[in-house]
Each structure stands twice: as structure tokens, then as C-alpha cells.
Amino acid sequence: MSLLVVGSVAFDAVETPFGKVDRMLGGAATYFSVAASYFTHVNLVGVVGDDFTAKDASIFHGRRVDTQGLERAPGKTFFWAGRYSENMNERTTLVTELNVFGDFKPVLPAAYQASKFIFLANIHPELQSSVLHQVDGRPKVVALDTMNYWIESTPKELRETLRHTHILMINDAETRQISNEHNLLRAAQHIFKLGPKALVIKRGEYGAMLVYGNQVFSVPAFPLEQVHDPTGAGDTFAGGFMGYLASVGRTGPQELRRAMVYGSVMGSFTVEKFGLDRLRALKRAEILRRARHFSKLTQFTL
Ligand code: AMP
Q1: Are 200 and 169 in contact (CB under 8 A)?
Q2: Closest residue to atom 11 of ligand 1, CA basis
Q3: Alpha helices, DSSP H only, in 42-96?
Q4: Quick check: CB of 123 below 6 Å from ligand 1?
Q5: What is the model's pTM?
């Protein structure tokens, strides 16, 4: 089943203890769709400016990413700059220039309107809602990411979007902020009252946790000797997670657990190099090999 994503396609400037890049292709929807395209066909909705060249767009070529919904508007593409701390667990946003994203009104091409699997990447909750309103029928899975900025500045709009969300995929700080609960399990129960049936908490180098009903499932982050750039890890995780679910078309407990592993596998590739460099060159066989490695990593007998 095909998968729809709406979110940023961007240029990023990134500084980590391993180096500095002044301008590289990025954006939540870019990481998401490249990752998910290893599992299924992806329909991309977003906007770029006239500085977005054919070479930039080539990241989507030769993959199962449809860019009919990637609008081109006069002006500059969304720009984000961030710096990571020495241990890379903290990130400071230095610049956010919305540019063409400022006036963006997403329009779903007719071919995307029957989407059953939808990922609303981190953007204004009203834009997330407007995409949902354009979808015909009842989607099977709506997953959503958001950030502190929207939690603080547009709480009402976010609550409305959450009412239509099945899976919320956020980090631990955002989980605590939305729920006003420090304990993540209690936070999950609070979030379930807002609409979502499942919560995926992304915890960087500590892996990710899935809570649904009264069940909990945890995956570690793949142990790597060197992480070069964590940018996009969360969106890549979401791409692996949703890409896998859409590829099997089912969302039972076993599928959700496998989706967590594929999310973690995909995220672990992204952080190995700067920007999209690792994902760009990834082979399907490498994904399967790392997923098998994951299985060994977490196996034990009682
Ligand atoms: P992640 O590291 O998974 O949280 O995502 C990083 C990506 O999100 C970068 O490539 C940025 O271009 C993009 N990004 C950062 N801030 C925003 C924002 N406010 N809205 C949309 N996308 C953003």
C-alpha cells in the first residue's frame, strides 16, 4: 500500500564534533521518503524554492518516490541550521528560515487522495490537518511528529490534529511536554486520551520505545563506534517504521514491533555520515543484514 508524507524538504547547515557542512540537502520529508522508499512506494507533499536544482531533486530519482506533490514556489527553500553538543545528545537550533514554507498550502494530487498510510512530519498542525482533510475515506494509519515549538505556540491546533492521529512519534522531551508527566508510561496514558492509540518515543542513542494499550516494546539503537551526524535520524526512523507497515499493509502487534526494528535499523544508517550521504548509497541487502544483527543483539533465553 502506498504511503503519503507531508513535511519539509530543506537545506541544512550542520555542525557536529566531526565536522561542519554549510549547506546540504535535508528536511524531514526528504529523510522520511528516501528511507521509506526501501520498503514501499512513497507520495511526497512539500514545497521547494527556485534555488532547488535538478541535482537536488535527483535524490528522489530511481527510487519509489513520487514528487508530483512537491510544489515549486518562487523564493528560497526552507533553511535550518543546527549545532550538536560534544556528546551529540543535545542539539541547538541556530537558524530556522521558513522561506517558501511560510505561505505553503499543501494540495494533494488526485492520485494521493486514497492514501491509507500517512505520515505528517513536523510542520504547523493546521497544515497537517489540511492534508488529512483532503484524504478520501478512512486512512489505516495516520502517524504524526511534532516539536516543542508547536506544542507551545499552537496547542489547540495540535490537539485537533491529534484527535485524528493513530500513532504519535516524538522524542522523550516532547512526550513529557505534551503530557506534563515525567514518567513516560504515565505520559503515554495521558496522550492516549488525546486521540493516538500508540506512542513511539524516539530516544536517540538509547533507542526507541513503543507503547500501545498496556503493552510496551523497546528497541535499542544499533551500537555504532562512530556517529557523525544525528540530523534526520528521527525522520529516517519514521520512514523505516511507516515504510515497513505500508509494505505489509497490516498493523497488528507483531507488525508494529517489526516496524520498530526497521525504524531503528534505518536511523542507524543515517547517523553514520553527514546528511543523506549514507542513506543515498544504502543497499537493501545492508538493511536486511542489520535487521538480522538486531535480532541477535536482543535475543536471550530464560
Ligand atoms: P530530525 O533530526 O529527525 O529531528 O530532523 C532534522 C530535519 O528536520 C532537518 O533536515 C531539518 O531541515 C528539518 N527541520 C528542522 N526544524 C524544522 C521545522 N521547524 N519544521 C520543519 N522541518 C524542520
Answers
A1: yes
A2: 27
A3: 54-57
A4: yes
A5: 0.97
